């Protein structure tokens, strides 16, 4: 086996261990609809196997469908999440047997595949990378479901590294063109391609994500009830939903508490705020006299090495994420406090760009110039337009295999169950460029 095949086999093992850990619960927990925003966990479990079957066994391996009668049930576009608990889904035991049967054949296909072939599904192991990243994305989705379930004892926790105070509040990113997106990364999604030059004028960006302490100042200042700070649609959403604080926050005894995986604890001031919608992030930024960064600004601050004239795979360089660089891979079930990862700083000095919390940007999710849908339109193309906002950087719940400087995530501006926060930016004056 080549190194690449060994790496793929290890990544497949790791992601499957993760999925099985998150679904190591009573059947009643797995089949229940915990929120109308989410699928039952047992749907995610069978769906990742079905997706792997579609793209690795059938599209790449040319193998006949194992259970064609279940395809429609696990097609994410055929059934909205709120309705999936009402389908005649595979039971947890059947789902585990099905995905394990798929996996056994996938390893045979991997063994036989020519990953140097020019066919885009084979080159660099693309179809395997698609399956690995997709399953990790569902791992993060499962964590959001487990958080919404309010049940304790289902999710492992850990201790993130300590925060660090001091240092500048913001860093300058000089003006000029930079190379956004990628042509080179074999596992990059269609929406990250092609690489293209973008002219970005000089701007300042927060060195660290906005913390709970800072966000609580916005709340205390009446930020939620002052329409001056809000996008009009966001203000309507806020009023109709009676939103007065981030999701999972409650006020008691003169302080803020949060519920995290079924346990209630004081809101830690130094942690990046999470579970805020795009509308809340946008309102905070306006209240602070700033704005959200565009996704081009975010990507330039994250990975552009001006001295070398090239984009880095990660803020700290091209080496894989280690525990000293970024809060990724669910080492703890929460973001690390601000300043926890100085070794993960980007060339411009921004920290925690990768990991801890997804970061909302001001940009709509749109195709890059020259975009070509691959391998199917429903991954990215059907979401393009003025409906979804771009998020960047991954969260504590994101696995290192499923994030990089160029990675683009997107969601509706009202969504708060995702592990999303933000940082703010402002234009630089002409004397600062
Ligand atoms: Fe999916």
UniProtKB/TrEMBL annotation:
GO terms for molecular function: gamma-glutamyl hercynylcysteine sulfoxide synthase activity; iron ion binding. Fe cation binds at residues 47, 134, 138. InterPro entries: CTDL_fold, DinB-like, DinB/YfiT-like, EgtB, EgtB_Actinobacteria, Sulfatase_Mod_Factor_Kinase, SUMF_dom, SUMF_sf. Pathway: Amino-acid biosynthesis; ergothioneine biosynthesis. Gene3D superfamilies: paralog of FGE (formylglycine-generating enzyme) (3.90.1580.10). The keyword Kinase does not apply. Keywords: Iron, Metal-binding, Monooxygenase, Oxidoreductase. Its EC number is 1.14.99.50. Residues 168-426 form the Sulfatase-modifying factor enzyme-like domain. Residues 12-142 form the DinB-like domain. It catalyses: gamma-L-glutamyl-L-cysteine + hercynine + O2 = gamma-L-glutamyl-hercynylcysteine S-oxide + H2O. Its cofactor is Fe(2+). Pfam families: DinB_2, FGE-sulfatase. Catalyzes the oxidative sulfurization of hercynine (N-alpha,N-alpha,N-alpha-trimethyl-L-histidine) into hercynyl-gamma-L-glutamyl-L-cysteine sulfoxide, a step in the biosynthesis pathway of ergothioneine. Belongs to the EgtB family. This is Hercynine oxygenase.
């Amino acid at each position: 086996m080549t190194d690449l095949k060994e790496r793929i086999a290890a990544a497949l093992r790791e992601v499957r261990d993760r999925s099985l850990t998150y679904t190591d619960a009573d059947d009643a927990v797995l089949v229940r609809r915990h929120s109308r925003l989410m699928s039952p966990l047992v749907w995610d479990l069978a769906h990742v196997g079905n997706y792997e079957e579609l793209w690795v066994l059938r599209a790449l391996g040319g193998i006949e469908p194992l259970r064609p009668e279940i395809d429609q049930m696990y097609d994410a576009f055929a059934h909205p999440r709120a309705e999936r608990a009402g389908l005649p889904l595979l039971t947890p035991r059947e789902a585990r047997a099905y995905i394990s049967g798929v996996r056994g054949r996938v390893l045979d296909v991997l063994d036989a595949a020519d990953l140097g072939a020019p066919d885009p599904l084979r080159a660099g192991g693309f179809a395997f990378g698609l399956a690995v990243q997709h399953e990790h994305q569902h791992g993060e989705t499962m964590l959001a479901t487990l958080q919404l379930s309010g049940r304790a004892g289902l999710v492992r926790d850990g201790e993130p590294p300590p925060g660090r105070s001091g240092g500048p509040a913001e860093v300058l990113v000089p003006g000029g063109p930079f190379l956004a997106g990628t042509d080179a990364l074999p596992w990059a999604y269609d929406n990250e391609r092609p690489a293209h030059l973008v002219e970005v004028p000089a701007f300042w960006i927060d060195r660290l994500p906005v913390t709970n302490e800072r966000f609580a100042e916005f709340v205390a200042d009446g930020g939620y009830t002052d329409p001056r700070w809000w996008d009009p649609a966001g203000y309507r959403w806020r009023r109709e939903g009676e939103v007065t604080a981030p999701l999972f926050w409650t006020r008691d005894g003169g302080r803020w508490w949060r519920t995290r995986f079924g346990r209630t604890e004081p809101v830690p001031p130094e942690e990046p705020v999470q579970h805020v919608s795009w509308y809340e992030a946008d309102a905070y930024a306006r209240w602070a006299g700033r704005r959200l960064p565009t996704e081009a600004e975010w990507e330039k601050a994250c990975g552009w090495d001006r001295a070398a004239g090239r984009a880095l795979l990660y803020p700290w360089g091209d080496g894989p994420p280690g525990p000293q660089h970024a809060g990724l891979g669910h080492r703890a079930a929460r973001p690390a406090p601000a300043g926890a990862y100085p070794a993960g700083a980007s060339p411009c000095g921004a920290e925690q760009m990768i990991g801890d919390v997804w970061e909302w940007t001001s940009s709509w999710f749109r195709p890059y110039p020259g975009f070509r849908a691959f391998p199917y339109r429903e991954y990215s193309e059907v979401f393009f337009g003025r409906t979804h906002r771009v998020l960047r950087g991954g969260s504590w719940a994101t696995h290192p295999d499923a994030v990089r400087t160029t990675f683009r995530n997107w969601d509706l501006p009202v969504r708060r169950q995702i592990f999303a926060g933000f940082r703010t930016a402002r234009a630089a004056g002409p004397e600062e460029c």
